[in-house]
Please model this.
Amino acid sequence: MRLSMWMIANRLHALEPEVHIKSEAPMELRGARNVVAPGCVHVYEQNHDIYIRYEDDFIRLHDIGFNYVFNVVQGIFDFYNDWTAKIQQATYDMDFQKIMDECWFFFGNPLILMDGSNRCLAMCSQYSDDEVDPEWEYVSRNRYSSLGFIRKMRRSYSVVDMYSKNRVQVLHKDNVEVYYETLTTAIYYQDFYCGRLNVLGKERDFNNGDIQVIEYLLQIITPALYMLQNQDTLNMRRGVFHELIQGKKVMSSMLKSQLDYLDWKPGDVFQVCVLKLSREYQDSGSCALVSNQIRRNSLNIYIMPNKDEIIIIYNLRYMDKSAVLETIRVTLQKDMDYQAGVSSPAVGLQQLKRYYQQAEAAINYGNLMKPGKKEYYFYDYALYYMIESSDPQNLYCALHPDVLHLEELDRRKNTGWLELLKNYFDNECSLVNTAKAMYVHRNTLVYRIGKLTELMHYDWDDIYNRDYMKQSILILNFYRKKYGEDFGQMDIK
Model:
């Protein structure tokens, strides 16, 4: 392992060295010599002080013997090599606790390693629960980050990209949300978010040597973190949304926990946007970069790079599709060409895979029917999707949003809104004929149609909207007869 002057200075911290090192001093030193030699620090005595020099950088120690310092400096190189071997073995053993404890000897500060679901994998054991700060105490006792801390961090550091890929970020202690200056790194294996490493500056200030050690450490442990995330026996540590996109079942408690971290609720209304970059930018690096930029420009969204595309999940309680698409436009500006597909609204996220498929279908049908556009809405192509789909559950999720809304009201309150809408359409929107068909007084019908209009979000005088609603009612009634009144609320193979 090659060292930098900063890494040597950090190991000499207890000797109170006088440090004169440029901030970007590279990791290229392989040993110590008592004469000038390529790639080595020169240790020598001058005016009763001991100097450790490399090119223009130097460390000066006062009132210490030359032989002692020379042996200590040479021992630092041996120590780093031994440390690397220990970290590699602990990584092979998946012993993250040992990794954190061994790292403490370099940083001399509290360290904590989290997985991709904000669950604590390990925190250095040199500190007790109450020796650092309230969040350290909470994590030590509960093994998860507190919801309040995560929300505060997102608000406080909205201008800092907290999810920048494998980049060490500095959180300054002048912010009220952190007790100490903190080095934090979002850990990615390729485009998969594996976790986070935090180092808290409780005992000493940080310098570039700390950042270099973190970057070196992550090269060793990141593949193991990725493997851990993918072990079937530890599925609860994987990204819940990643599992749902793949159509896998997740426990309600796991989903609720993930939603809590985003300040979302299980019954909220969500939409999915799929963003496809132009061919020259469809590599994993570009997708990760754009994802980070969008995340920085918009709060309360969940972004997931996925091969050659980017999946965006957002809560309509906080922002609508126009705000999301505007964020995409602002982020990409004229630098990149793209296409975006937006799904129908979804109550809850248990059917996330189907709404992801809708966003994909919006782009596919849009390119077929109206090529050349950048943004496509599933709503505009839902009838084509329904014609081609043979999956009853896909069809249910593709039903007109207003029809699904009325069906939900009917199921909960027995309102009869869908029956009214069907009869109104069957009678060509004639009040007289509809009143006769339903055996109600015309004035009563006028009142109910008025109330129905208030519940609708789309204008049924538009031909496409009306056809979409009529087709949705037809499909819903057919599958209710086939599968029962609970169609849409159960899994159908």
